[in-house]
Design brief:
Distance between the termini: 32 Å
Radius of gyration: 15 Å
Number of helices: 5
CATH class: Alpha Beta
Shape: globular
Strand content: 25-35%
Strand order of the largest sheet: 1-2-3-4-5-6-7
């Protein structure tokens, strides 16, 4: 099987910048995700990820810096995360990085259990084959990281 090539999809006012880099295992979605046709945007991404998990890198970083997304985008992002959990090597690692505004980050830190805030993601990651970490980043108005925390390891 041929190794995947990088997939780069440029940002638009309604879609995120998508960068899937095979050689580094860096996968990122950055910006807003409000496409009218989410399938058109995310189906090629899911296809790429399905090919990637056959011959993945030892460490895969999925960076979700999506400031706003609609319901159809969240469904596709869930499918992408689920596909990454099928990396068939328990010695490999999947790190999901989530970037959120500082105010939301602080509100979560005050809640009884930060993990409860991420139940949809942790449910997807629950039966993962690779080792999984979830890392949370607090960002300011310029998207600069102010704080971070390892939520699940």
């Amino acid at each position: 099987m041929e190794k995947p090539t990088d997939l780069i999809i440029g940002k638009t006012p309604k879609t995120p910048q998508i960068e899937l880099k095979y050689s580094s295992g860096e996968l990122s979605l950055t910006g807003r995700s409000l496409p009218e046709n989410a399938t058109r945007i995310y189906e090629p991404v899911l296809n790429w990820v399905n090919n990637y998990v056959i011959q993945p890198q030892p460490v895969t970083n999925l960076r979700l810096n999506v400031e706003y997304f609609n319901t159809s985008s969240s469904l596709w992002i869930s499918k992408i995360i689920k596909a990454l959990t099928r990396i068939n090597n328990p010695d490999y690692r999947l790190i999901v990085h989530i970037y959120i505004p500082l105010e939301e980050y602080d509100d979560m830190k005050l809640s009884a259990d930060v993990r409860d805030s991420f139940n949809p993601i942790t449910d997807i990651l629950q039966d993962s084959i690779p080792e999984v970490s979830l890392k949370l980043y607090a960002t300011d108005d310029t998207s600069r990281v102010i704080r971070d925390a390892l939520v699940l390891f």
